[in-house]
Every structure is written in C-alpha cells, then in structure tokens.
Amino acid sequence: MIKILTIVGARPQFIKAAMISRAIVDYNNRLTPHASPLTEELLHTGQHYDANMSNIFFRQMGIPEPAVNLHAGTGMHGEMTGRMMAAIEKEIINHKPDWVLVYGDTNSTLAGALAAAKLCVPVAHVEAGLRSFNKRMPEEINRILTDHVSSLLFCPTHAAVDNLRKEGITRGVYHVGDVMYDAALVFGEIAARTSTILNDLGLQPGQYHLATVHRAENTDNPDRLQNILNALNALEDPVILPLHPRTKKALETFSLLTPHASLRVVDPLSFIDMVQLEKNARTILTDSGGVQKEAYFHGVPCVTLRDETEWVETVEAGWNQVVGADTERIVAAVRRACPGTPIVEYGEGNTAAEILQIICSATFSFKFE
User: Fold this and answer.
1) Secondary structure class of 100 (helix, strand, coil)
2) Of residues 125, 214, 244, 298, which has the active-site annotation?
3) Most exposed: 42, 115, 332, 351, by fewest CB within 10 Å?
4) 77 is catalytic
C-alpha cells in the first residue's frame, strides 16, 4: 500500500486535489492483483477559512473530508507558516505517509514541504517550476523553496522545466501538463448542467466581464486597488466582482469609493458557479494565477492585473495581457481583448493519472535508496 498525505489550504489547491483524489479512486478500481493500492489522507491547513471558499469546495467537488483541519488561517506569513509546520510535522509522524503531496505556492505548500523534508519523507510538488522572477511576492519565495526540497516535481509547462534546470534541479522533474486542465474539462461540464448563477444574476453569455482581485500587491496598496476599481467602473458592460475576504477588508480599511452601477460586487461564489461565470464571460480580469489559466481553458480572453505572470505561454499565445494596475492600460486591454492561438503543453486532460503513475513507480526506489 502506498500512503499519500495531501496538504491543502487554499482554493486552487482544493481544485487540483479533487482531480488527484478522483484519479486515486479510478486507479484503485482498475488495480491489478499484484499492484499496490493507493490511500490518501487530506490535511487542510485552514489557510482559507471563509466557508464559501473552503467547505463548499469539498462538498461540490467530491474531495474526501479532511482527516485533519489545522484552522491555521490567520497571522503574519512567518507566524502562519511556522504554526502550520509544527502541526503538520506531528501529523506526518502520526500518519507515516510514503509521500507528502503539495500544490502550488501558498504558505500551506511551503509548510508541508519543509515539515516533510525535515522528516525525510519525500515531497511531490504539483505545479513545480513556475517563476514570476519577483521575489517581493510571497508566492515566489514559497515555490522556489518548495521546489528545492521536493523529490518529484510535476511541471505544467516546458518553461517550468527550464526554470528548474537553470536552478540546478533536473532529477525527479517531469513535464506532465496541467492538472487544472483536467479540472476545466470535468467541472466545466458539471457547471453547464447544474449552475444557475447566470439566471440568478440576470446575465447573458458574452455580455459581462468577470473580475477577481486578491493578491497582497493589489489589496495592500490603496493606490493600486483604487486604480483597478476605477478601471472596472469605466467598462461599458457589467462587471461581476466576487469579493475575496482580503479585498473586502482592504476596501473597508482604505475607505475606497463606492462602486458604480455597472460594477456588481457579490460574495465569494462556489467553484461551480465561478466556472460557469468564467465560461460565459466576455473578458476575465484577474490577479490570480489559476484564473488566468482557467480563462484560457474556457476560451475567454484574460487581462492580468499584475506586473508579471508565471503563465508566460498564455501571453505568448495571445490569450492574456499583463497590464498591472494602471487604469487606462486596463481599460484599453479589455477593449482590444480577443482569442489567441492554442497552447498544446497543458496536456490532454489526463495529468492527474500521469502524476499517480509516476508516484507509484518512484515509491519503491525511494524506499530502498
């Protein structure tokens, strides 16, 4: 038996974990008599503690209930990461996994990777090798350090493989495609069948924009946040803005302007409803790395509200414009946004299954090295 301890704590990780969990069930259902079954236990750090951004994902996406919830979603970066590390270390000792599986670039990712590495438990990092080359971003620090202590590095793009090679990491590196593309295929179909969000909000496909803002570089800077709001208010079509708790707090703290009639602020939505809004938007404006890709997966042009992106292929293919937080640049980018060309390196929708095959193949060699 191969035991995997999966560490999750934030929205994008829930989505990726759902695809791996589904693939584990499928793997075990097709198991040959002499093969080792896979077991998975989910550890939720509680980094996102809003019910609309956490619990509902588990229910909607069929992720197994977490074996542990650390409720560690508050505090400064160092405090939060340290508290998570201490608790995760105890759980690794208790559960004795063969692998600790981490996703992306959050504090939960780094805490899980460091705790496992110090206990000599191999780490598998899904979405390895991404770089913004901006070390002022906490996420950049998290992803670099996680990659350097991981034993298996699952890269979504060839650029990610190249980034690791330049840092001297070549062993255990695999280009597998993007597990988020798996999710787009599965949950896009579910959303089309089950979501009522367009009717609920009185929207017509292709006649509104969708915006998400949550990164500290925007929410913690009142000038940037004001500029983004000014741009959203200047757009002709309605703009739907599901309000992240961090952004809501920033708006209250900075006493920023009241949105115009065209900007509709709504509470955080379920993943299924977000997928339906993404699929049918005219344009998506975001500072989220995951939403940039989701825009491409659903064939919707994207405007990125940051000064750089890890997903350079979306820009090169013409799907994504990186404009920062300048009001005029944002508005101009939305007005010229149009579809780009296909991106082939994200895979064919079977990335989760490929990741599991590699983990199974690597388990024996790691046990006996």
Assistant:
1) strand
2) 214
3) 332
4) no
